[in-house]
Each structure stands twice: as C-alpha cells, then as structure tokens.
Amino acid sequence: MNPVLKIENLTKNFGRLCAVNNMNLQVGAGQVFGMLGPNGSGKTTTLGMLMNVVNPTSGSFKWFGEEATHHTRKKIGAVLEHPIFYPYLTGQKNLELTAMIKGANEAQIADVLRLVELSDRKDDKYRTYSLGMKQRLAIASALLNDPQVLILDEPTNGLDPMGIAEIRELIKKIASDGRTIILASHLLDEVQKVCTHFAVLKKGNMVYSGPVEDVSKGAETVEVKADVDLTDALSSFQGSSSVLRENGYFEVTLTDGVKSKDLNRFLFEKGIIASHLVTKKKSLEKQFLEILAESK
User: Fold this and answer.
1) Are residues 270 and 132 part of one domain?
2) What's the pTM value of the predicted model, to 2 decimals?
C-alpha cells in the first residue's frame, strides 16, 4: 500500500543557507506524525514545500502515490501560519467565507464547529475569541473540505496550559476518525502525548525517524528509597549499570533484561523493604536531546 506521503531527497536552499537537506521520509495512513526540532531546523520550510507554498531546490514528494496537483491538494487541510480571519465577522460568517473560497459545502460548517467545540460561540465576533479559540477556528477552517490529511505548524504556540490541553484533545479526536495528521512542534511532551511517530530535524537534516512507542524501550531506570542507607546494597547489585543519588532518592539504571521487580526482590532478600520504588519511563525530551547530541 502506498504511503500517504513519500519524500525523496527533498532540498531547499535560500542562497548559501541550506534550510532542508536531502530529506527522505514516509508517512503512513492514520499516523499522527510529529516533526521535532529547534528553531531553524527546517520544520516550517518542509511543511511549506509540502503545501506548494515554498518551491523545492531539488528532490520530490508524492501525496497518495501521486505527484502533488490541485486534485491532491483538495485532500489536505493545513494551518501553517497564525490564523487570519475578519475580526468584525462572527466565527460562523468567517467559515462561510472560507467555504465559499474553497468551494466547500456550507453544510460542513455546523459539523466542524461542533468538532472544535465552538458551536456556542459561532455567532460571536472573531475579535472576542481567545487565542485558543482562534486556533480551534483555524483548524475548523482546515477541516471544511473533509480532508484526509491535516497539517499543523506549531498548533499550540503561545497558548496557555488549558489551551494546549484543548488542542491536544482536539488532535486526538480528529485522529480517531482515521485522518493522518502531520504537525511541527518543539513541545516534546505534547508530541509524546498525541503522536504515533516522529522525526527529529537539526539544521535542515533529518537525524532520526521512528515510532513514539520506541522511546520508552531499552534499559529501565528505577527511582528507589528506603528507611535505611541503600549505598552498599545498591553497589553490590549486579543488575545495575549505574547508581546515582538525586533529590533524596537513588536512581538506578538497570542493565538490559533486568526489571524493577528484580531489584525489589534483591533488596527484600537483604532484609530491606523499599518505601519508594518507581520505574521511570524515558521521556521523548531525553531521547530528543540524546539524538541531537549524537548528531553533532
């Protein structure tokens, strides 16, 4: 089966600056794909090329197994920049104008307003909307054509924690319908919560790509504490590769194949009962920083 998006050797130069360098990437149907990278890594430029807003210097990409055309563009919804609507028109009227421009069915408006939870504010002027509501209206606008793919560039940028949580839940809801979502973000925790796959970009180069679920694989790290000093006991445990003391706890990195229950059993056999023993999952942030460090 053809991937929804296939990128081959995609490159973009702005004069002597190489913004995107020889990128190769595939995105499968139904994936929520996150593009991660610090500012200047090439995320927005990549999305711009995929939407034909920026012309590639070289390389190519295909949507749905076809060269990008006006026909394939109709299957894609996008929010690339800050949403721009008429401030003195209502949310409903702004969407009616967008539907007319896109040639979309106005009957879709009620559905997308319900999806982004703006039905009760549809008759209020856009200028009265909060930043989070403006972003949700932009997503509603991108969904008017009932696209198979939704592209979002930094969808939670500038939002407060409540706004970030609302957009996160909205993305999950949209993805649950089987749509493919491609988003660029630097908020690693949010990507870990909503994405199925991710790629890491650094100075225009894609330095990693894989499933988010792989992040937590590998050696376990266990945070442990007891009412007695654990220094000697933990130093004699053969299943650890390192033991660190931090914030009143011991942080034990286990060797491959060794689990937290093995450490707990070892301590119990020595007559020590752990008052605190928690397996710490590896965060996307930690892997992201490791990937960037390895790609120097």
Assistant:
1) no
2) 0.80
